[in-house]
């Protein structure tokens, strides 16, 4: 008895169609996606970068660790259930956004620091209560930057590897290369502050909310317009570096804090933007933080029980906001708006 089915024979599924016009096509698609998921997984592993981003690399120890971009003991432990948190990162190399559970020991980690510098540099925020000092605000902002910069380096590496194995996508590659170039300029600013221990290099807003939230996260974004639609900077002009805003949100000591920061060198550029931030009321601030975090980042850790308690409709809105193409589609949408889901409602 032969197992091979002829392309022009009737399909064994009983549809009455020829095999080539029925299940053969489906099988080919399944095999294609199976191979692609495997290829993506292998390429991601090959693209991993282990390096210490601290400016004094000559003082590094040899061990590059999995550093937490969201504090493990102070924050992830607080919002976890049975040692787990939910994050919008697929474990199965899927090309679309999904929510998976991660143990807090691996949630939000990146291989961007050696053991020595991770411990020494971030000690003022790891071992001390947040009291809004310049150093603490700087370190929270810097860790957000370091995580995002490291992600860009690995993403660019991933695209180079995939280009060698499949078809090169120059547009995506160029985008990451330009982003890395912009980040390098800001890395010099951060490095100078770390080496000089002069932390008064940022303009920031520290918002304090009552009660502890059931999530934590960080992201960066490049505002093109202020809240009235006035042009701030253009992403189309590749000859002019983009300036970034960094956002970090976390619960601590019965309250919730949101830190919004940018460099003093961009004071004039973001002057109107900062003025509008100051005018937001409490609800608008919550909408702003939630919307920017959902639209701009995947580094969000959520309490699993709070996620499961969301309605199907709210989960769908949540995942739609995390779509990487959404920001392009919605363009100048007002981040103060209530979009039907807020991380603060978890």
Can you put this structure into words, describing what you see?
- It is a single chain.
- This protein is α+β, with helices and mostly antiparallel strands and 346 residues long.
- Helix content is 42%, strand content 16%.
- The chain is built from eleven helices and nine strands.
- The protein has helices at residues 23-47, 72-79, 115-121, 123-126, 134-165, 170-196, 271-279, 282-296, 304-308, 312-321, 326-330, and strands at residues 64-68, 84-87, 100-103, 109-114, 202-210, 215-221, 245-252, 255-263, 300-302.
- The strands form three sheets. It has a five-stranded antiparallel beta sheet with strand order 5-8-7-6-9, sandwiched between helices.
- Strand 7 (245-252) and strand 8 (255-263) form a beta hairpin.
- Helix 1 (23-47) crosses helix 5 and helix 5 packs antiparallel against helix 6 (170-196).
- The longest helix is centred in the middle third of the chain and has 32 residues, at 134-165.
- It is globular.
- It starts with 22 loop residues before the first helix and ends in a 16-residue tail after the last helix.
- Mean pLDDT is 86; it is low at 328-332.
């Amino acid at each position: 008895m032969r197992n091979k089915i002829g392309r022009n024979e009737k399909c064994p599924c009983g549809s009455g169609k020829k095999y080539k016009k029925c299940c053969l096509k489906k099988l080919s698609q399944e095999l294609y996606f199976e191979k692609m998921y495997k290829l993506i997984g292998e390429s991601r592993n090959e693209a991993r970068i282990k390096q210490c981003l601290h400016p004094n690399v000559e003082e590094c120890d040899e061990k590059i660790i999995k550093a937490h971009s969201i504090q493990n003991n102070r924050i992830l432990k607080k919002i976890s259930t049975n040692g787990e948190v939910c994050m919008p990162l697929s474990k199965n190399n899927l090309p679309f956004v999904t929510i998976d559970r991660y143990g807090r020991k691996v949630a939000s980690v990146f291989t961007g620091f050696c053991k020595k510098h991770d411990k020494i540099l971030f000690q003022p925020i790891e071992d001390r209560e947040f009291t809004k000092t310049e150093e603490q605000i700087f370190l929270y902002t810097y860790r957000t930057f370091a995580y995002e910069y490291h992600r860009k380096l690995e993403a660019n590496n991933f695209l180079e590897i995939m280009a060698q194995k499949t078809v090169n996508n120059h547009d995506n590659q160029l985008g990451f290369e330009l982003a890395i170039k912009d980040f390098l300029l800001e890395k010099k600013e951060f490095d100078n502050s770390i080496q000089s221990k002069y932390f008064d290099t940022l303009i920031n807003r520290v918002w304090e909310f009552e009660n502890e939230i059931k999530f934590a996260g960080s992201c960066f974004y490049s505002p093109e317009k202020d809240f009235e639609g006035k042009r701030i900077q253009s992403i189309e002009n590749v000859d002019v570096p983009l300036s970034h805003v960094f956002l970090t949100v976390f619960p601590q000591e019965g309250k919730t804090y949101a830190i919004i920061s940018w460099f003093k060198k961009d004071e004039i550029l973001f002057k109107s933007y900062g003025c509008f931030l100051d005018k937001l009321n409490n609800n608008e601030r919550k909408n702003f933080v939630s919307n920017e975090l959902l639209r701009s980042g995947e580094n969000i850790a959520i309490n699993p029980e709070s996620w499961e308690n969301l309605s199907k409709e709210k989960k769908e809105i949540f995942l739609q906001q995390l779509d990487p193409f959404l920001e392009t589609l919605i363009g100048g949408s007002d981040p103060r708006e209530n979009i039907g889901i807020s991380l603060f409602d978890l």
